[in-house]
Amino acid sequence: MREQQRELQQRLERERQTAQALRDANQEKDDFVASVTHELRTPLTSILGYAEELDEVLDGAEKEFVVTIRRNANRLLELVNNVLTLSGRAQTHAPSGPRVPCDLGRFILDAVQDSEHERRAKEMGIDIHVDGRVLVSAIPAELTRILSNILSNALKFSPRNGTITIRARREDNHAKLTVEDEGVGISESEIDRLFDPFYRSPSATRAGIAGTGLGLTIVRDLITNLNGTIHLTPREPHGTRVTITLPAHEPVS
Questions:
Q1: Domains in the chain, please, with CATH?
Q2: What is the pLDDT averaged over residues 14-41?
Q3: Whole-number Å distance between alpha carbons of 105 and 84
Q4: Strand pairing partners for 240?
Q5: CA angle 47, 48, 50 (to 5 degrees)
Q6: Given the DSSP bridges, would you call strands 125-130 and 163-171 parallel, antiparallel or unpaired?
């Protein structure tokens, strides 16, 4: 009996040590990722700063070169921010700032304007339907990232000359936002996996659509920290519908 107890204690101790080693390794990984991404952000921010200054003094073909530099530097910065956010939120799950009333319609228009180059390149249409003034309680920077990621995905996965439809309205104590595209679509069996870090849909891979598999992971984390929800559903005959709910702003009476 004592021998069995000793073996059990030894086994439990080995498991405890293994679990601790895994936690330590994971922490080292997170620290390394955070360090590298911080180091990458500094030169990228500098590149963007100088590019903005050049954009103000150049014209013609030279200005187009600067626009290309800014666009690609912003893409790299967004990727770095996504990796940094993923690493940091795995440890803290904490909001990055105070929540304030945000006009969802205005944020949608800003996201559409920021994606104008991608939209024009694919000659796509974006239909926006906002039912009145929809105020949500959110962190502005995080709401911007949510909309930017969702719209970027819709543009990326949609065919040339396609249409993206965005709708927003107030429903009881929350706001409902839907984004519908006419892209390659998703299967019911992979919906949950699409939120896993680095997961890439087979249909996207077959279509040669680039991506890191981080966007939806980040979006879900941001929405969860705002006490919201996100759901993906296939559209018939093709495409995807993204449905997001966020807490509506309730004025103090």
A1: 2-92 (1.10.287.130), 100-247 (3.30.565.10)
A2: 77
A3: 28
A4: 234
A5: 65
A6: parallel
